Amino acid sequence: MNNMSFYRLYWDKLNRIKKGFPIIGIVWARQVGKTTFLKEQFPDYQYFNLETPETLSFIEQDPWSFLREHSHVIIDEIQRCPILFSYLLEIVDTRKIMSDFIISWSENLILSEKISQSLAWRVGYITMEAFSFEELSQNHTLSPDPIEQIFKWFMPVMYDREVSPIEYYESYIATYLERDVRQIKMVQNLTLFRKLLSLLAGRIGQVINYRSLSDDIGVDEKTVKSWISILEASYLVFQLQPYYENFGKRYIKSPKIYFSDTGLACRLLWIRSAEELTNHYIVGNLFENMMISEIKKQIIIHGQWEQLFFYRDSTQKEIDLIIEQGIQQVPIEIKKNGTYSNTYSQGIKYRTNLNIKHKDQKGYIIYTGNTISLGNITLSNRRDFNYTTL
Questions:
Q1: Sequence-ordered strand ranges (E) for the chain
Q2: What angle do CA 117, 121, 125 make, to 5 degrees?
Q3: Are 324 and 299 within 8 A, CB to CB?
Q4: What is the pTM assigned to this prediction?
Q5: Among 71, 66, 132, which residue's Cα sits nearest to residue 297?
Q6: How many domains does the chain have?
């Protein structure tokens, strides 16, 4: 599959942003195929990659002249030259040309702060992650076996190279630690930081216990929280907050942790094949992770405003996922099984009976069997589940 051109779903969102902002800011998770995407979708723009030493040196010598003399340009990895932000501010305010500059970067905390302080409303953002199911399907690379897909990977670059996931992800982790994390002052011990990453992989789908992680790693709870924030800002993990009718409680209770790419989690757990994963203790959690990640991608891609939560009450009744759509909530249970069991819908039915406001809500159970409907609960298999149809 070398030199393939991959179908991505982000173009419509980019077109919307292009009309309203002088700068398009594209935030990338690492290795999601940004260079190919940018050059294909903006063929009339001049492309400058600041990871190239010669290009960076050229721009650093006279950034003001560079911006003033160029229009319709892509500046990739702009974090390599932070001084450009100050000059961009004056240039775009003078020209008032929509989508005159496209800037892109792999997210980090330092860069986010600089952008928020300097460019504010002048940048229209888009966050681009690894492949979604729809993109894999359009590219004819979606595996019919969910276990294989969990292990296989979602990174576009992996479908353009002949390399094993074990080798790829080991290199990915090493590069991330050496290039990105080493620059962050809050991380002084890369060995302990990687240990946290591995421990989180073993606790996918669980409520984060900061004290337990602190004891296992040997750093204080404050450090654990700051390191998890770094991982989240780098798009390696994401958190799911608990759902409460009381809005304030959602953000003071402990969240659950998930990985943006299940292939990376498999590598951190030393899982060597899809066959080995089939009987692994964490396979159900990884299936849940994959589906929640997919729904999250659909929301980002289609520009929707839904929020995602999990539900657990004082009696330990749980629902894997709550999609909040304004005043409506859509409950979803996720099970890695091909045969339906009445126990799967217990959490949804319990919450519906508990609160009259939810009597008419529709619930979903995602599993690997056939799609059928049971009253207000729809069973949807992994392959034809599409968040936009909810």
A1: 23-28, 46-49, 73-76, 101-106, 123-128, 237-242, 256-259, 307-312, 318-325, 328-334, 363-367, 372-374, 377-381
A2: 95
A3: no
A4: 0.84
A5: 132
A6: 3
| 346 within some domain | yes
Whole-angstrom Cα distance, residue 275 to residue 138? 26
Domain final position from 289, 305, 322: 289
pLDDT single digits (tens) 135-173: 888 888 888 888 888 887 788 777 777 778 788 888 888
What range defines the domain where residue 100 resides? 11-128
Task: Find the DSSP H helices in 132-205.
Answer: 133-138, 146-152, 165-175, 190-201
> C-alpha 353: how far from its chain's center?
34
Neighbours of 317 (CB within 10 A): 14
Q: Compute the mean pLDDT over every residue in the chain, rounded to the nearest whole number.
A: 81
The CATH number assigned to the domain holding 183 equals 1.10.10.10
- For 220-278, the pLDDT digits (tens) are 999 999 999 989 888 889 999 998 776 667 666 889 999 999 999 999 999 999 999 99
Tell whether 152 and 282 lie within a shared domain: yes
